[in-house]
Specification:
By secondary structure, the chain is of the alpha+beta class. It has one domain (7-66). Helix content is 40%, strand content 13%. The protein contains 2 helices and 2 strands. It has helices spanning 7-19, 53-66, and strands at 22-26, 32-35. It has a two-stranded antiparallel ribbon with strand order 1-2. The longest helix has 14 residues, at 53-66. The radius of gyration is 14 Å and the shape is globular.
């Protein structure tokens, strides 16, 4: 099991996992992956605790609007 304090190292590890054919499904208490086709992907870590549902919707809209 891996545990990270450095987001850059975590992102690099997750990209390597994707290259090996493991797609991240969940990272609540531990990392959960599913097998998939290997792929190169950009992964950015962003842990936020949004208190209101409206804040979550606004947050998602920001990324949708950005493409």
């Amino acid at each position: 099991m891996s545990c990270f304090i450095d987001y850059d190292k975590e992102e690099k590890w997750l990209r390597e996992m994707a290259k090996e054919g493991y797609q991240l499904e969940d990272a609540s208490f531990r990392y959960k992956f599913r097998s998939t086709e290997p792929e190169y992907t950009v992964i950015k870590v962003d842990y936020r605790h949004l208190k209101k549902h409206e804040d979550f919707i606004d947050y998602c809209t920001l990324f949708e609007d950005s493409g």
